[in-house]
Each structure stands twice: as C-alpha cells, then as structure tokens.
Write a sequence for this structure.
C-alpha cells in the first residue's frame, strides 16, 4: 500500500493555499454568495485529487454532486450532468431527464442549494466538454454570484489552443463577478523528496525527470526499479508490465472504453480473465468508479490504449460494441456506442447509432457534437439511397450552422440539394434551398441567396400544400422585405403563418409572426410593437429561442428606425441578455453591433466601445457585425483623440464584407473619411470617398454623407443637393438648420460638429460645452481655437475647471458621494447610480470619513450639515 | 498589450486625494490583469497648486484604459500610444518613497 500512501501524501503536499481558496469560496456560497471556480493545471498535476479531498471534507454540509466529461472524440451531450442525475435533487434530475436545454438545467442547479446547505457541484475535465455542457457552465458562471452555489470546474490549461471552445468561454466569463480562477502548480523538489521517502530512488533524479508532476512521480514510484522511467508513458507501462496476462487483458479492455467499463461488459470482452479485476484494483492500476471499472488517471489509460496493436484494438472494440449493444445501456448511451461502432468499423452499427447520437446531441444544444456524429455516419454512408443521404447531410448542415461553422454548413446543404434532386423530391429540395438561403444571407451573399429563393418558390409552386411550403413562403417574405416590397412580404409571411399553424409547426409559425409584426411596426409603431411583444412572449413560453431572439432584435431595430430611444433602452439589455443566456449567438452579436452604432450616435461612447468589443470578442464568422463593430471603434477612438483608429479601420477592411452589402461599404468609407479629416490628411478623405461616389449608390443619403466629409476637407464648396436631411443641409452651408436636425435625431456629436461650423459665438460655445461633455477632445480644441479667434473670452479648458472649494477639501466626486450617503443610499446603490465600481465607492466613502473625521455614515452626514457642504445641491 | 502614456492634468486638489486615487487605481487594476497593467507615473506640480500625473500603462486597448479610469474614478485627458522606449538613465528615486 506504499503506492497509495505516497499518492495520498502527494495529494496534500503544497496544496494548503488551494484548499484555503476552496474553503473560502465554500463559506461564501453558504452565505449566499456563490462562485464558479475554474481550477486549471496540467494533466496529472493533481486537480482531481485536491478537489476530492476538499469535497469529502465539506460533503456533509452541502448538496454534493460530482460529474466529469468523457475523453471521447465526440462526447455525449451534457455528459457530466447525466452522471449526477442519480444523486441530484428532484428539480435537477427532472430538468436533465426531461431532455431540457442548457439554460433550464443551469437554472435548476442554481435553485437547488440553500443558505447553510449550498449546492457543491464538481465538473471535471472541462477541456473535453461538449457544447451543451459549456453552455450550462456559462450560465452558472454568469449567475452563481447571487445564489448559494459553489461550482468547481477543473480543466487542463496546457491543452487549450487559441480557438478551443473552453478558452473562448473563459474569455466570455472573464468579467463576471462570480467567477474566479485557481491554478494547481507542480510540486517542489522538497515535496517530491517527501513522496520518495521509503523508496529506493534518488529524489533529485526523480524530481529532475518528473518536473514535480505528482501523477508522474506516483507512477514512477509504483513502477519500482532503480531508474526513473523516461516518460509518464514508460512509467505507466512499467507498472502494467508487472501484472499477470489475465490482468493485462482486463487493463487493455478497460483502456479502449473510456470513461469506464462495467464488470459485466468486461466479462463479455475478456471471458474468464475478468477474474483478475481484483488484481488490477489491488495493484492500483485500476479503480472502481460509479458505474464500473476505470483507470486511476486518463494519462494511464491513454498510455495503455496506445500500446495495443491496431488489430487487437479493433477486436476489442468489436467485443465492447457487442457487449454494449446487448445491454439496455445501448439506447441511453448512443454516443458511446457510436464511438465503438466506428472504431470497430461496423458500418451497420454506425448508421444505426451515429444518427441517433446526432439527434440526441442536437436536441440538447450540443451542435458541435451533433455535426461530428452526422459526419461519422456520412463516412460510412456512401451506399445509402439519395434520400437517406440527404437526411444526414441536412442534419449535419443545420448542426454546423448552429455551431457557427457557416462555410461548412453551406457546402453540406449544397450536397443535400443535389441528393434531393437525384431522389426526385421537389418539396424537400425546395426546403433545403430555404436553408441554403438562410446561411447565405448570414454571410452577406444576397445575390446568390435570392436566386435560391426563386428556385425554391418555383419548385414548391403547384405541389400539394405541405409543411415545407411554410418555409418557402417565409423565405420569400424575407427576400421581399430585403427588396423593400413590404406588401409582397406581408402577404408571403401571412401565408407562411397560416400554413405553419395548420401543420402544427410552431417554429416557422413563430418566425412568420415576428415577420408580420415587424412589417406592421413600420407603418404603425404602437400596434406593431404590441404584436412583436406578443410574438416574443409566445416564443419564450414555447422555448422557441431563435424566434424570441429574432423578435427581440426586431423590437430594437424598430425603436431605432422610429427614433424612439425609449423603446431601444427598454429592449436592448433584454435582447442581449436573452440571446446570451440561450446562446443565440448570431442574434446576440447582431444586436450588439446594432447597439454599438446606436450608442455611438447617442454620444454614449463608453457603451459603444463596450458593445463593439463584445462583438469582437466573439470568434464566430459573421462579417457584417465585426465590420460594424470595428467602424464604431475607429470612430470612438478618433472622436476622443485616442490612438488606434487607423488600426481598427484596417481590421474592418480585412474582414472583407461582400461588395453587395453597400451600406457597410458606405459606413467604412465615411469612417475612413472622418478619421482622415481629424488627422488633417485631406488626400485620404478624397481617397476614402471618391471610389464610392463614382458608383451608383442605392441609398440617396449615402452620397450626401460622403460628400459631407469632402466638403469639410475643402474638396467641395457649398452645394445644393436633393433631400432635406442634415447632410444635405450641411452641404448647402445651412449649418444651424443641420444642427437642429441632428439634435432632433438625438445625435449630440453630429449636432456639435454642425454647430462648430457656424460663425455664431453662442452656437460655438454650445458646441464647445457639448464636446467637453462627450469627451470629444480634438473637436473641442478646434472649436476653442475658433472661439478665441472670434474674440470670445473665458473659454473653459476642461471639464474639471469647476473644482469647488470647501473647508474639508472634498473633491467634487466625494461631495457627490456624500450627498447620496446623506440620502441614505447603500454603497452598492451609489455605485450603480454613479456608474462606479462598488470598491471605488468604498474608497470614496472611507476618504470622506477620514476628511470629515467621522466614524460612521451618520456622523459624516451630520458633519456635512454642520459645514454646509451639501447646501448648493 | 501595448504601451500607452496617459495624461491626467490637474486631476486632484491635493497629494492626499491623489494618494487615495492611486489606491483605487491599484485595486481596480488588479481586477483586470489581462487588460491593464500600471507601469509607473510621474506626479506633476500644476501651476494652480493642484496635482496631475503622467502615467505609463500597458493595456489591451485605449478603451481598456478608459474603462479602468471610469470605474476607479480617475480623470483622462489624453491617451498616446508609445512606439518605442529609449532609456538613457534610470528614473530618479521617488520623492515620497
């Protein structure tokens, strides 16, 4: 038992700090302040062992649940949560069993704990997590803060490449308050020496070779002998080599069936050799796991699996497949069966289990895994009939699209369309064409998309009406909307709605409702808004998340279109929140990009930059949103006089939005012109605008907008142009009217820019004050110079010139905080009111107490009254 | 991460106010280690008797500097990106070390 002993010592050596961190988070969770703790470290460094020690320590004071991800190339969806079902509270078990999506499961988990008896959830090996599991983790991270929940998620930080889904999620969660990261480090030379006590091995050599990796140290000690094995693999295999032939057979069988194999299956695979299970357990090579026999560590399993010859591996997979399909587990664990079916090269089994696993994964929201399972089936599906093959291709295409691999989605749906043609199934072909259209629109390939709509409508016309027609009509509605033909769009959308309802397809009916409401909102805002809200509400109730996300986007767009900023304010956070929680990622970055431009126009540059950066943090392929975010960022920077505007413009150009998205190219040209104008690079203003202006522009205001910058750059004189918008007024030199029009549209920066071109001292002063408020330093400098040239005195230099004097020498901000303290607000409320962090408010309050020599908030308020500090509020 | 110089002219009435601001700056900065890292500052004696600073930061973007300034309640006049560093002599010893 010396091996187990040294492993135990290793587990506790140099882990005090880590355990303290876990204990503190647990105490906080008991008090209702939950945390998602991300515990990172290399493979074998002892993440599990340390977590296990802590888990056993506090288990009786918590609802303890323990689940892990499987190291399969395509893991089962929500694997860790399926594992915890048995011991989970009823609410959690019901959510997992009911085929729910990530959001419902996360909410059930967050509701499971209570103060004094928190939920303690350990999720192991998150670097292998499926997409749906990561979605649950994301919600837990965003929401754990206010609940009695401690989630400990372990992961190998040395295996996260740049675009690893877990790394992307860690980035998303970086700013969440309830998320903390802990690191598990290798052991020191001293700790390794302690583990080596009683073994006949040179501790210095052991440390040198293992670099203090506890798993390696334990395996090397278990392998015995005088020399330390050269690699972890050698150490593991040296230990296995000491087992008898029967035990070796058991170890090999278990190695090809992660995460574990039950005793019955082992018997089926290795026959009488299974009697040696006990020998494997006693030697420490294997351990018992909840459902069966497993390796002590994944590193050991991989070492053994890789040492088996390919022919033997194939035979083992065949036996395991047979054992699994014989048991009732086959239907509940299809992902695992599909894995063995492929490894066993059993075509029939792959075609039976991989599509089932794919459907299961898609239902749970694990689209990456669904796409991989469909691909697995397709690898064995060359001889399928065109119709069967098209079914698989359509499934894979949809899964790729939802997993944000649009390039692959487009390629695969094209293949499906060809299969439908070969099959002679026109309505199915039309339906596949509507899918292609969706994906093409997403990438901005409008011309090609519209051709597909036309083909789909031709195919569907004249066929007896079925469910597929609803999709064709709805795609036609969107195509007409894009052309600005509202009447045709409304008619198609209504037919789609009617057919969707008749054939009981809530998804397409919901989409059609949103489209109808959106069109009506263009002519009658109030009525349209009511309809949109109803459509969103009904989609939410039915769990039609994409419909709801699209409807919320629509509410924001209509608010912007009608210049109803109150509506935009009301819906924007809701839309972002909903899309984030339900991982409607494309709609999320869409609304964020729109929000970025909207906030920029409102002069809310911090918000604009925040929204833009949220778009840019998203790794998805979405040309327009990234292009828009970069344009907004360039403008925020140039208007503030911050560096980096040119870099953002270069990145926007590099995104490569298709030429047919004219408005995006006008946005970019206008942004380039503005940046160049601030840099006094008038030649660049010319270069930015000339090419666009020589082309025929669809939008009449686009030309005025570009010529506006040419006029400011002195490339054009006063010109009369058609239209009465603010750009046209500016081009005609009617600056005050232009300013009024901009003010009417709630665009403060553009208002100031127009006022800056008047010769009226009051208007210039107004422009200057506005620039200081906005933080538009470069424009403020221009206006201040103009004011001084026109003889104005007392032009303020900056927003802080108005520092008031008071006896206690409080800063203006401290006076502001003091006022709110006197009003009885708590620090958290003050922070919210003043857009500060709670910690900063804490600092201000302590400074106030110090300066006023007060011991409490009450004393400070009294002192403020005595000194008359708050009288001129 | 890029290097930036941040001008905070006449930002505080007194050296004590600046000291309090520096404490807030540190606290908030430690909460966003991937976005901002404060390198050093020079405290300016302004003509009106107030104090300002010139700060050198490493940051992921100008917006990160502004976000840090906003939540720690620090003024920002101007952010300039540093293209290169030429060190001729070490900094003088801090006055109030």
């Amino acid at each position: 038992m010396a091996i187990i002993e040294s492993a135990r010592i290793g587990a506790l050596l140099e882990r005090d700090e880590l355990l303290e961190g876990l204990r503190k988070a647990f105490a906080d969770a008991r008090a209702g302040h939950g945390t998602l703790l991300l515990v990172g470290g290399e493979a074998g460094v002892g993440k599990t062992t340390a977590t296990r020690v802590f888990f056993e320590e506090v288990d009786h004071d918590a609802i303890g649940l323990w689940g892990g991800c499987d190291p399969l190339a395509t893991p089962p969806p929500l694997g860790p949560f399926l594992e915890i079902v048995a011991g989970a509270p009823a609410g959690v078990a019901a959510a997992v069993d009911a085929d729910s999506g990530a959001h419902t499961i996360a909410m059930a988990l967050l509701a499971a704990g209570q103060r004094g008896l928190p939920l303690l959830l350990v999720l192991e090996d998150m670097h292998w997590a499926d997409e749906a599991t990561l979605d649950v983790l994301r919600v837990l991270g965003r929401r754990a803060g206010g609940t009695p929940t401690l989630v400990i998620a372990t992961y190998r930080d040395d295996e996260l490449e740049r675009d690893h889904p877990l790394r992307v999620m860690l980035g998303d969660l970086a700013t969440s308050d309830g998320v903390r990261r802990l690191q598990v480090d290798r052991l020191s030379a001293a700790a390794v020496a302690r583990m080596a006590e009683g073994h006949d091995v040179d501790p210095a050599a052991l440390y040198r070779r293992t670099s203090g990796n506890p798993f390696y140290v334990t395996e090397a000690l278990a392998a015995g002998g005088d020399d330390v094995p050269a690699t972890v693999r050698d150490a593991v295999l040296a230990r296995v080599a000491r087992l008898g032939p029967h035990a070796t057979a058991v170890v090999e069988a278990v190695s090809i069936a992660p995460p574990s194999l039950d005793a019955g299956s082992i018997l089926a695979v290795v026959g009488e050799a299974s009697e040696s299970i006990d020998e494997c357990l006693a030697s420490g090579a294997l351990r018992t796991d909840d459902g069966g026999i497993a390796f002590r560590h994944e590193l050991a399993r991989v070492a053994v699996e890789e040492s088996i010859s390919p022919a033997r591996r194939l035979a083992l997979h065949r036996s395991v497949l047979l054992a699994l399909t014989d048991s009732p587990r086959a239907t509940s664990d299809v992902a695992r069966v599909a894995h063995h079916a492929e490894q066993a090269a059993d075509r029939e089994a792959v075609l039976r289990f991989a599509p089932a696993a794919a459907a299961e994964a898609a239902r749970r929201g694990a689209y990456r895994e669904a796409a991989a399972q469909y691909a697995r089936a397709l690898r064995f599906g060359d001889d399928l009939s065109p119709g069967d093959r098209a079914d698989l291709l359509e499934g894979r295409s949809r899964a790729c699209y939802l997993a944000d691999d649009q390039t692959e989605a487009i390629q695969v749906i094209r293949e499906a369309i060809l299969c439908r043609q070969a099959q002679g199934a026109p309505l199915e072909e039309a339906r596949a064409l509507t899918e292609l259209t969706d994906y093409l629109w997403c990438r901005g390939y409008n011309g090609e998309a519209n051709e597909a709509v036309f083909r789909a409508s031709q195919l569907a016309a004249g066929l007896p009406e079925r469910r597929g027609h609803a999709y064709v009509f709805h795609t036609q509605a969107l195509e007409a909307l894009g052309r600005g033909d509202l009447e045709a769009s409304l008619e198609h959308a209504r037919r789609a709605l009617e057919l969707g309802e008749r054939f009981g397809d809530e998804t397409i009916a919901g989409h059609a409702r949103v489209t109808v409401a959106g069109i009506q909102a263009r002519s009658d805002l109030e009525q349209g808004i009511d309809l949109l809200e109803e459509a969103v509400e009904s989609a939410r109730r039915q769990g039609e998340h994409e419909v709801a996300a699209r409807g919320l986007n629509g509410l924001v767009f209509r608010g912007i279109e009608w210049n109803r900023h109150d509506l935009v304010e009301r819906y924007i956070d809701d839309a972002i929140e909903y899309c984030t929680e339900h991982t409607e990622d494309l709609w999320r970055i869409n609304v964020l990009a729109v929000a970025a431009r909207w906030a920029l126009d409102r002069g809310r540059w911090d918000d604009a930059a925040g929204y833009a950066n949220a778009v840019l943090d998203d790794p998805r392929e979405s040309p327009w949103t990234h292009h828009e975010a970069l344009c907004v960022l360039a403008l925020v920077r140039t208007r503030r006089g911050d560096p980096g505007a040119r870099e953002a413009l270069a990145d926007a150009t590099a995104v490569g939005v298709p030429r047919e998205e004219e408005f995006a190219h006008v946005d970019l040209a206008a942004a380039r012109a503005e940046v160049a104008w601030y840099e006094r690079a008038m030649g660049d203003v010319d270069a930015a605008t000339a090419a666009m202006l020589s082309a025929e522009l669809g939008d009449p205001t686009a030309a005025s907008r570009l010529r506006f910058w040419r006029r400011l750059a002195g490339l054009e004189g006063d010109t009369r142009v058609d239209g009465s918008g603010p750009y046209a007024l500016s081009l005609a030199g009617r600056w005050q009217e232009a300013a009024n029009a901009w003010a009417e549209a709630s665009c403060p920066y553009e208002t100031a820019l127009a006022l800056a071109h008047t010769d009226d001292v009051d208007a210039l002063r107004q422009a200057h004050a506005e620039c200081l408020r906005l933080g538009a330093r470069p424009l403020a400098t221009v206006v201040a110079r103009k004011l001084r040239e026109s003889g104005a005195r007392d032009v303020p230099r900056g927003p802080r010139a108005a520092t008031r004097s008071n006896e206690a020498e409080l800063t203006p901000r401290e006076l502001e905080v003091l006022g709110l303290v006197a009003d009885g607000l708590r620090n958290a409320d003050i922070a919210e009111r003043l857009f500060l962090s709670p910690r900063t408010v804490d600092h201000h309050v302590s400074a106030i107490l110090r300066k006023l020599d007060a011991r409490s908030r009450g004393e400070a308020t009294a002192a403020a009254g005595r000194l008359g500090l708050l009288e001129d509020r | 991460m890029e290097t930036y110089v941040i001008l905070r002219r006449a930002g505080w009435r007194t050296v004590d106010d600046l000291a309090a601001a520096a404490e807030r700056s540190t606290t908030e900065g430690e909460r966003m280690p991937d976005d901002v890292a404060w390198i050093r500052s020079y405290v300016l004696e302004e003509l009106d008797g107030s104090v300002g600073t010139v700060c050198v930061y490493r940051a992921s973007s100008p917006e990160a500097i502004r976000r840090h300034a906003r939540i720690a309640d620090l003024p920002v006049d101007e952010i300039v990106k540093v293209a290169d560093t030429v060190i001729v002599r070490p900094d003088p010893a801090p006055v109030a070390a």
Q: What stands out?
A: Confidence is low (pLDDT under 50) at residues 801-805 of chain A. The radius of gyration of chain A is 33 Å. Chain A touches chain B at residues 174, 606, 609-610, 613, 633, 636-637, 640-644, 777, 798, 800, 803, 809, 811, 813, 835-837, 839-840, 843-844, 847 (CB under 8 Å). Residues 521 and 529 of chain A are 6 Å apart (CA to CA).
